[in-house]
Amino acid sequence: MTGTVSAEIPVSADSRPRHVAIIMDGNNRWAKQHRLTGVAGHKAGVDAVKAVVETCGREGVEILTLFAFSSENWRRPQDEVSALMKLFLFALEREVRKLHRNNIRLRIIGDRTAFSSVLQQHMKEAEELTQHNTRMTLVIAANYGGHWDISQATRQVATKVRAGLIEPSDITDDLIQQHMSIGDLPMPDLMIRTAGEQRISNFMLWHLAYTELYFSPVFWPDFKADEMRKALQAYAGRQRRFGQTDDQIAAKASQQ
């Protein structure tokens, strides 16, 4: 699952998504509902991550991208941010070897410069340990924002123009795509957001242009295997047009 991936609009899709992206929302509200601290909600959310990773692996999803920490989340109370960083480090220390044993590759996208040197080192080691695994790719978006991703990609392209390596006329969607954080992976087929909110909150703005959206009222800690399967079933029942008419899609189906 490496190499050049086109940014062109696809023309067809399978009933099973290759790439699922999830905004894991509702940890704090779940905690309040259970009269617990926000940190307890985030810890409960880790169990949901495990369940969803296992379910996607069994269901044949090739890529799962999880929005773990946005660039806007630094605005949260300092004690919550500190607890999240500790939880992230704990997960890297404890869970990565399980991913490795299950042949799952881990990739982490986002601006790492804001994280501690210890956390950055663990990220690097986790990616290196799992880099040759082939069963599924788990992408963790941490200190990530869609605006940041597009900006860093265009800066790289601008640097090449200034160096004389390419001309401005060479800039295409595909060229920008190649410089995105996961420019070598297929675009998400399905984006899920939990906890009832119906917005994408600066998540993968470039990538979600033709992605199917699924909004669940369930708080993330309760979004386990059954809820994940519901989302996959909902996706399987949709017809993805990619700008085409029903007649065009029907004609193509009859030719298969």
Textual characterization of the structure:
The protein has 256 residues and is α/β, with parallel strands linked by helices. Helix content is 44%, strand content 14%. The chain has a six-stranded parallel β-sheet, sandwiched between helices. The longest helix is centred in the middle third of the chain and has 24 residues, at 78-101.
Topology of helices and strands:
Elements: E1 19-23, H1 27-33, H2 38-59, E2 63-70, H3 78-101, E3 104-109, H4 117-130, E4 136-144, H5 146-162, H6 173-178, E5 190-193, E6 212-215, H7 225-236, H8 246-255
Parallel strand pairs: 1-2, 1-5, 2-4, 3-4, 5-6
Largest pleated sheet: 6 strands, parallel
Number of helical regions: 8
Number of beta-strand segments: 6
Low-confidence stretches: none
Q: What is the overall pLDDT average?
A: 90
Euclidean distance between termini CA atoms: 25 Å
Bin the helical content: 40-55%
Main sheet: which strands, in order across? 3-4-2-1-5-6
Order of helices and strands: EHHEHEHEHHEEHH
Rg result:
19 Å
Approximately what portion of the residues adopt beta-strand conformation? 5-15%
The helix/strand class is: alpha/beta
Task: Identify the overall geometry.
Answer: globular
